[in-house]
Input
Amino acid sequence: MGHFCYICQRVRANERFSGRGHRDHVCKDCARLPRETRKELEILSELERMLHQSHISERNQDRLLSLTQHPAPKVVRTATVLLEPARSYPFRRRRLVRLRRNPDLLRRLITELPAGMWEGYVGRYGDSLEDPGELLRGFDSGLPDLPPEDPGPEPDPDEPICWEDCERGVLD
Ligand SMILES: [Zn+2]
Output
């Protein structure tokens, strides 16, 4: 049974943590990173969690806005790209469907967010779309750092398309 490091966002073996690291949820490798790098990774992980929330609140939007003035360029770029969907599509439900009508923004999310961030989001919430491949188009060309994708099992064509919420009986 491992332990989660919230900086590199991995479950790592217990021996990868010091006593203090255990308490802080920071593995030994990440604890050795320069302070600025660590802080930057922490913020990027905060932004990723924000994207996964069911609702990006006005307070979150203010936080994004203030991060567009951050000294680290990667933080600035990530916060800038996320600000538009946070304002225009603050609710996660049906966000991916609505985004299809905004291909320019979709392209920016795919190409300008840190490697894996948008892919992780679509992978988690996009699998009930009729054609998730359409949302993922461009990943091969835009993000050379991504590991090769496991194609996984063939989708069952008879499986009904369902949003997570319709299982709970909540529909638009
Ligand atoms: Zn770590």
